[in-house]
Amino acid sequence: MRIVLDECVPWPLAKHLTGHTCTSPQRSGWGGFENGDLLRLAEGEYDLFVTSDQNLRYQQNLADRKIAILELSTNDWATIRKNLDVVVARISAMRPAISPSSMSDLWPNRIM
Prior knowledge:
This protein is α/β, with parallel strands linked by helices and 112 residues long.
């Protein structure tokens, strides 16, 4: 799966997503874009947008997005690292959104 890790998601997560192609807004030349523009750009080229922005669902109309979205409960790398098995399993289980967007929450520190 082709994955965009939002600016707020620790980049070290990418090396644990073997079998997937990961990028970030900065690596794609999209650094500094607001979420709406970023999602619009990403949905044409990527399958999954991973963010820890807890307000995304309230700030954006996600109903017509053609990209799957995974919301992490934190951007703290220590917490994500402790729960890597859960995070990686959830990402691997997600499927690219055909239409409309599929939004999934992942609350690593509550799943244990």
